[in-house]
Amino acid sequence: MEELSYYEILEVTRDADKTTIKKAYRKLAKQYHPDKNPNDPEAEHKFKLCNEAYQCLSDDQQRSIYDRYGKEGLQGGAGRSSGGFDDLSSMFEEMFSGFAGGGRRRQNPADMDKYPLDMNVDMRISFNEAIFGCEKEVEFTYKKSCNDCKGTGAKDGKLSTCKQCGGQGQVYMKQGFMTFSQTCPACQGTGSAATDKCNSCRGAGYEEVKESVSIKIPKGIDTGNRLRVSGRGNIGKRGTRGDLYVTFEVTPDKHFIRDENDVYIEIPVFFTQAITGATLTIPSLRGELELKLDVGTKDKQRFTFRGEGIDDVHGHGRGDLIAQIDITYPKKLSDEQLDLLEKLQDSFGIESKPHESVLDSAIEKMKGWFK
What we know:
Layout: H1 6-9, H2 18-32, H3 41-57, H4 60-69, H5 83-96, E1 119-125, H6 127-132, E2 134-145, E3 159-161, E4 170-175, E5 178-183, E6 192-194, E7 206-217, E8 226-229, E9 244-250, E10 256-259, E11 262-270, H7 271-276, E12 279-284, E13 287-292, E14 302-305, E15 321-328, H8 335-347, H9 354-368
Parallel strand pairs: 1-9, 11-15
Antiparallel strand pairs: 2-7, 3-6, 4-5, 8-9, 10-11, 12-13, 14-15
Helix pairs in contact: 2-3
């Protein structure tokens, strides 16, 4: 059983004014609305509690009764008015009409296009092309308003009132005391429908045209980045042309791994090179670099080369190249190699047996456990 008061449900104080109560309700209703929390019984329950609390506290008469007698005083509908319901209905139409494409206003069908003017194409480029930039030819298909039907999709441009929405462009659904609207699926919000389909475009309202354009891809472009080509999108009824957006996907490289403007490369190092601190020649994005290992370099140790990474696509400097060490060991040893390694180990004396000084005391301590 819910023990919270209406004020606690809406998270306001008992002396809160109507503006504060309404603001709190809008916030919580959006948070717990079923459209945003599908298949969530707890959110649905909280949503209903918020509605119940707001119905009461938004009405001066009901709020007065509630403050004096609690919920029991409201039983039987005494003093209940319809103002709260109307307020809720209009509020929810305002708050959630965006889920279905907007409010009740609609444009003249003659001015509305059946498709967005801006369009997008995807392009895959190589790692090398992304790092250094390049020029590419983009082939795409854009939409152009049908001349015969003037983009309406109707024969001779003749339209009639949409039967499903009655010309409103919106269809409405009631859920309790709330009314929700959504764009009419039959006419896409125009309020009109074709009496007969246009023979040229078969009712689509547009024709498709193939085109190509050369674009210059800047250095440092990355997967997910978009490039806008002005005035190369779809063409609307009035001849207005939108923009073309090219979204990039960069093919990963076999050796270099990108992390924003930094680039990583794994360097295999033989254990003797790591021990002696050898100097290696390694590849970079722009040639070769000299890597001087530390004496006793550790596995996975990183060495950073400042400014040897990727140019920022917006021109804000350049990232780094990070070389990560991967120490390798021999899989087999000949008798001669084994003998040499044993002699090398003996030459270090006690230094070659660090485990003895660390573990001897632990062994002695353990023996004492069983006495």
